[in-house]
Amino acid sequence: MNYLNDLAADIEGWKRDGRYRTIKVWESGSDTWMNLNGRKILQMSSNNYLGLTHHPKLKQAAIAAIEKYGVGSGSVRTITGTLDIHEQLELELAAFKGTEAALVFQSGFTTNQGALSSILGADDVVISDELNHASIIDGIRLTKASRRIFAHKDMNQLEAVLKETQKHRKRVVVTDGVFSMDGDIAPLPEIVQLAEAYDAIVYVDDAHASGVLGKNGKGSTDHFGLHGRVHIQIGTLSKAIGAVGGYVAGAQLLKEHLIHTARPFLFSTSQPPAVAATCLAAIQVLRDSGDLVTKLWENANGFRSELKGLGFDTGASETPIIPIIIGDPALTMRFSDRLLEEGVFAQGIVYPTVAMDKGRVRLIVTAQHTSEDLAFALNSLQKVGREFGLL
Ligand code: PMP
Q1: pTM, two decimal places
Q2: Does ligand 1 come within 6 angstroms of the Cβ of 176?
Q3: Along the chain (391 residues), what's the average pLDDT of each consecutive run of 10 residues?
Q4: 57-288: CATH topology
Q5: Catalytic residue check, 180
Q6: What are the N6-(pyridoxal phosphate)lysine sites (modified residues) in this protein (predicted)?
Q7: Which CATH code of 2.40.10.220, 3.30.465.10, 3.90.1150.10, 2.60.120.1440 fits the domain covering 20-49+290-387?
Q8: Nearest in space to 109 (alpha carbons), one of 184, 182, 180, 32
Q9: Helix (H, G, I), strand (E, B) or coil at 377
Q10: Of 208, 218, 255, 358, which is the active-site residue?
Q11: 246 CA: nearest ligand 1 atom
């Protein structure tokens, strides 16, 4: 059998559904304006929330680390791959998050895989919001724990599941801090209250909340004043922090347990020195000033209300992630393509990432967008929105 025929049939199907993707190859680094096919395009879909990818302190830290340590770490963390800058980064992260300890992984994705599969055993139950990120879903799949899903942010359902699952050894409630496709915030105070009432553990993935929510971007636990009441906080170093990597912040015992059990930590080479040094510098920049985070929220709130004023459906957005809900997948992708012709990139997101009738272009506002940039984006969106009969 020619297995390629099978793959080709899948690909044809995606083309028919309008779900086929062409990867864009950018000719300049992550920034507000980026080069694509020789044109300058306004970037409205990057996770570089604070523009830290080009921060001079981060660049200097990366260059100095390459000079001192070379480009690679040489092995997994448990052999020769833990350098003093990895340890400093973990100390700095724990202080930033207000936890006893932190442990760094190679990406946010592997952090969820490692952490969930380490803490959950066959006698446990994991209780997960239906819109949690793919890395949480995959992390859960790696465990032998029972699985229960609750409707998005539905606290009545969560309580019902907590009541029904008392017989399990551990109950772990898992939620994104900020949901990546809709840009809404998890009801963490209510989740914590229920978890305390039913003796459950709270696990929050702050990939899109780190550097965004809370004082100086400390995350959703800080935003809601829940220090000491959220057991496990996940963060990524790839979005607002500007580089790549992920971490678990929590108890020292949790860290020790993960060091012995988390498979991506044990079996995959550690972050390169330049990356660890970059992340360390980024956390220090955030620690010392909240100006970028303040600017991010000014830009995001202003832009969202302008979009709503024009008549766009921005769904449940309450953060710098602002979807424009379009619906049909093919129409969504055409909208995104048309916008690109106008010089603005906003990624179309369609089934299976979101429901079939919930296609959207997902806009992400950053602290680096100027008022001129945002006015340009709004004008282009209004023009294309009218053409597509959305306004
Ligand atoms: N969790 C959430 C909620 C995310 O949105 C993402 C990134 N898409 C990840 C985890 C994975 O993070 P990373 O890109 O650092 O692997």
Answers
A1: 0.96
A2: yes
A3: 93 85 92 96 98 97 98 96 98 98 98 98 98 97 98 98 97 98 97 98 98 97 98 98 98 98 97 98 95 98 98 97 94 95 96 90 98 98 96 92
A4: Aspartate Aminotransferase; domain 2 (3.40.640)
A5: yes
A6: 239
A7: 3.90.1150.10
A8: 180
A9: helix
A10: 208
A11: 15
